[in-house]
Amino acid sequence: MTRRRSALLLLVVATLAWGVPPATARPSFALARIELVFQNGRGDITVPLRYPDLRVYATLQFTGAGILRATWKVDGRILATVAEPVVFGEILMFAIPRTVPLPTFEPGLHRVALEVVQPRPAFKLPEITYFVTAEDYEDFKKRMEKLQ
Amino acid sequence: MPSHRRPGKGCARAWFPVLFLTLWASSPLAAQAPPPQPPASGVAVTARTPEPGSLILERRPAITVTLEDPQAVLDPKSVAMEVDSADVTLFLKVAPGRVTYVPASDLTPGEHNVKFTAADKTGRAIEPVEWKFKIRRFAAFEEASIGGDLTASLERALRKPIKEPKDDSGVSKKTETPLHLFSGNLRVDGLLKEGDFTAKLNSNVRYVDEFRPRARPKSDKDKLDLANYLITFDRKPLNLEMGDLVVNEGFFGAPNLARRGLQFQANDMDDRGLKLTLFGTRYETIKGHHPFFGVEEDKESLLWGGALTWAPFANRDWLKLHSMNVQGHRFSTAPGANVGTVVSGEEGDLWSFGTTSILFGGRLKLATEVAFSEFDTDTTNEFKEESDKAYRGTIEGMHDVAMLLDSPVTVKLGAEYSYVGFRFRSPANPGLQPDREGYSLKKDTLWKIATLSLGFSAFNDNTDRLDLLPRVRTHSWNTALTLAPPDLPSLVLNYSRSLQRSYYEPEVFGPKRIDNFQNTYGFNTSYGREAWSVNLGGSVNFFHDETLTLQAGDKTTWTATAGMSLKPVQSLSISPSFNFNRIDDKDKVVFLRDNTQVRRRVYGDTLTGTLTLAQEFIPKILNLDIQVSGSSTQSSDDTVDSQTYGGVGRLTWNVGNLFWDWGKQALSLRMNFNRVKDHVIPQDRNEIGIFMIIDLLAPYKL
Description:
The complex is a heterodimer. In chain A, the strands form 2 sheets. A 5-stranded mixed sheet of chain A has the order 2-8-7-4-5. A 3-stranded antiparallel sheet of chain A has the order 1-3-6, with no helix packed on it. Chain A has one domain (2-147): Immunoglobulins (Immunoglobulin-like, Sandwich), CATH 2.60.40. Chain A contains 2 helices and 8 strands, in the order αββββββββα. Chain A is an alpha+beta fold. Chain B has a domain at 11-135: Sandwich (Immunoglobulin-like), CATH 2.60.40.1220. Chain B contains 2 helices and 36 strands.
């Protein structure tokens, strides 16, 4: 947003200075910022095997208006697609659909990304990670209950 | 001589008095007579060791019961003692005026419970006694433990997918699929407790080693990673946290800020009504083994601040006054480990003052905040910090307005006004949108199974009223009806309308550039039984762009989702899901084969399906897990036509401790596949990989 304003300001100053009207000042639809987090508010989480409630959330900021097209991917595999209309100045927040669980049946490190197809980002998209331990979720629950 | 109690003796005759008492109790006579009281014994317990509630080091303490009369003699048959519900009567030493038990083996550290019953020589029961004591693990601490588990996974490719690009392609081979992969996670949980003092450690340390023989350039990532850690020292009212913590102070200041660093809190809200928070963290989110903030390489990225909350009234909820300051800088262009954006080095600080009030038992809530910032968005240029302000006020109320079918109808009302200046920035709230001013209203009506929500908001930008910039106003209306009847499908219906218009344009810009409105209709329904559940949803958005001629810019977006979860038998679960998107561009610029440019209506469809399956062939021993997905994207102007399929299947045999006597081991065979088919730029890439994996889970406790 700020960059759009700054760019716009520069454009106006340049226009006034050179006396040439801009072809268009309509802000183009572009991705300005993207942040991915798990439910712990961070870009990394450790969960037990077969954990059923792992969620990932995205917060996106744009310039201009248009339709966001993106794909949720885990370890390079497509899990779900997103098509969301965005209006000027709107911050878009959404989670991966509940109907598509993030896979937790494999111990080890897994990578989650939201691959934005439209608008094409001008920067590197983040990739967040989750680690699935070999401790079964049922055993994990029992351990937590015991601790409480 | 230990006294022996023979619980079996006399039991055969015990049913006579029981039967008599039962019959007598059910007779009318019993209703008039007072309940029978056993005759009180003149013998009483005066002392117990270890003392009730005491904390001792001795693992085999002498557990004694001392009677008031040192010469008192108990009926040896009646004496009974339980330690942690285990009958130890056989091991009691019964002496006049005293009963003693010395455990034959060490008691475990922690809390223990003792129950003692007896009767005197005449058969009159003495008052039973029960007490608890604690055995500490170490001399210095009441409780001390460290434990966790190690997960280790060793993976080897039996058949490697052809993922790396060709030698002459010029593309980096960093993405090559590893031939060998070792990943491990060490969970460490620690606890120290002494009286009111508690220290805790929760952490996960990772080690990931991937062997990619052809990858160029080699990965420069650290193999060892301190994924997360949090050390907490707590002695009320003081609390110190080190590690991956969350700062939650103010709306503009640092709301739910997850960072690595330190946080100190003195929370005496109950007694003095004061709470002090001091924190120092990294400016942005980080990954890797950076254990503490403030070390040499971290000086380039620091965020620190403090907050003071004061509740002047006896009821602390009535009014809380909050003030905070936060400042920080980041001189690099790293936006954060989980963030994508373009940033320069930046620095700034912020002061914030606010109030919160919760009145009438939570039925009325008020909050205000005003904040001032000085911020430099690019430390590399000659422009320095610019100052600006932000403020907001919110009010929320709740009231029962009627009764309907014995359930209250509750109305919740909320209103907010906020102003965030053009140059306002918060170093601890990077997602805050500057240059925004407006208000929102919300009304929720709740009744038993139904909620009706209505909302309206109006915002505009260009808060500084700059003549050189346009000013855009956005109006939004939304309504939603949620029905959640028990044992029936739940339903959510929603509608929203949004209107945007630039009502001021600088003359140099010519005609106005933002004038659109959109209507969105949506629904979602879900229903679940023990063995299955289903979820259906859909929405359609009509976007009308009024700034361009004809229908140029008009778009309709359709979305449909369906998900299901089936468990036909206990050992099998299947979860398919589908997602369909259609973007209907009413007037899109299309290039024909001869490179001429025309405007046409173009559809872009994306269909995605995912199937997750889990089959337990032998419970807890042999499992099969599969997740496959496919996605097809096509557009009616033939510019896009591609299909992507991917999947992973894994057969796991939990072998217990077959290989070595430590933890649990599992052997797995995994198959990955992916296929990308593009009809526009003709290509059909098909990859299959097969991997053998050994997993280890090893819990430990020190």
